[in-house]
Amino acid sequence: MSINEYMSNKHRECDDVFSQAENFVAEDKWDEAHKHWQQFHGELEEHLTMEEAVLFPKFEQATGMTEGPTSVMRMEHAQMRALCDKLANAALAKNKEAYLGLSETLMILMQQHNMKEEQMLYPMTDRVLGDSGPVIQAMENHDS
Amino acid sequence: MNLDGLSFENIPKFTTPLRFFATAPIFGLLASLLLIMPDVWLSRWQPQFIAMTHLFTLGFIAMIMFGALIQILPVLGGVGLPNVDKTAPIIHALFVGGVALFPLNFLFPSEWSVLASLFPLITAIGALVVCITWVLFKTNKGNVSIRAIRLALMSLFVTVISGVIQLSSYYYTDAMGLLQAVFQGKDLTNLHMAWGVLGWVVILIMGVSFQVIPMFHVTPDFKQGIKQWLPAIQFSLLVGMTTGIMYKLSIMVWLSMVFTGIVLLVYAYSGLGLLAHRKRKVPDSTVNFWKLAFSALIISIAVFCIASILPLIGLGHRAAEAQLLAVTVFIAGFVMSVILGMLIKIAPFLAYLHLQQSAMNCFQAMSALPNMHELLAPNLGKWLFKTYTITLPVLCIVPLVHELSVLAGLLLVSVFLQLLILQWKTWQVYNSAQQNVDALVEKHGVMNFDQF
Ligand SMILES: [Fe+2]
Known about the structure:
The structure holds 2 protein chains of 2 kinds.
Chain A: H1 3-26, H2 30-63, H3 69-92, H4 96-129, H5 133-141
Helix pairs in contact in A: 1-2, 1-4, 2-3, 2-5, 3-4
Chain B: H1 15-36, H2 45-77, H3 84-101, H4 104-107, H5 111-138, H6 144-169, H7 173-182, H8 187-217, H9 224-246, H10 250-276, H11 285-309, H12 319-359, H13 363-367, H14 372-375, H15 378-397, H16 405-444
The complex binds fe (ii) ion (FE2).
């Protein structure tokens, strides 16, 4: 499996849980919503850390680009985290309107970010790193 | 490997695409007013009709597609137009001038109107096509959407050329005599329409939708075969149709048309299929617009089939009306719905993206950003969709019942006014949020994320 395939699958998994949480909020089912929101939040954080701690450094090492695409990606991760904080508050306060406005924003932001990674960054990483096995292994072993 | 192509920061300023999106409804309004004017369908209807359709196709449809292209290229291909915030406004100004003067060719035709309108129009479109083609050659990836955009631009090129030939042939008969000998009567008009609508517009929508539907609406992906082949097949069918017309091979024209219908049906069904498997269940007007668009596409093909059968059952005299109906359902039902749905999503999203850029690295500013729904209240989108579901059927009956054109025009006026108001509101929220963000960044300064 290439890094691109592996990471893209992770993105899809996150999307699924995220949508489930949002659907429950829309139906005012806050208990389930909360459960799924927390699951999503955990999975997303794990994914972001995996990239920042393992994948990006490997890319930067191989290409010598530290100020390039990965720095933009790190910045976008910070923005996603800021939105997640607000979403967590909205979920706690059971504020449906705020939650749906924020989740729409995070969704689009996340999809845009994922698209850049899946179409540019991951394929490039696959090309510069060659063998994807050890990298995927390192990401799986990484404790976030 | 081309690492230079990897820049994610080449995103144009908010005002750059917004000027295209904000001027488009104004041309939409002008076109609607022409529809309301009493003699559109009378003896002199043809020039006015052509003026109206071009105000709409150039001023509204093309205007928005150019704005969207300028915005989407850096994200899809990683490379934007050279110096986009300076070049795009010039292109925009020329295009606005050209479109505004264009109706003169039909309302008060003269050699001068051709020169005055075509010069800015062709300069604008030419500059855009050259710039974008240059950009597309620079990107290192043959992504499916990028490939579709290339084909769409080639189709736009053919559309412009065939249009220019027609317009100039009225005045410069000698030079155009040769070309006219190849094409007969309405042939060139038909080719112009086919390349414009089935090439430039449809292939561009296809390419963008492959990316945007799964991304914004969290649906499964389009099937790989569809993404890979549909735009190219559509393009080859247009080439086939053109060859058939040039060499008077009616069987070839006929086959190309049948297969175009099949391609469009496949596209519409797979689009509807994706939306049916959408994972997010929250109401979304853009999703409704997409569903409306794909359904209208299917209906328009059905109407076109009926129009082709009419002569065989002795109703040939109604065929022209039925064809006009099919085209109206196609443009107003499919193309226009796609555009409306995209606009209500893209305007608040871009506003957000830019606010976020300026809030970058300041935690206080980042938490003060308005969300998507604050930038555009979902209710406004809902209203637009409701108005349009009423407007569309009225508009589609107009080719059959001309008396309804005033009502259709008024409804369209309200649709375009809503578009203007909606964008104006987003702009206001954006502006005050921008001031807020600047003040917060000033007050708290930026922090370093490496600390985390
Ligand atoms: Fe990421």
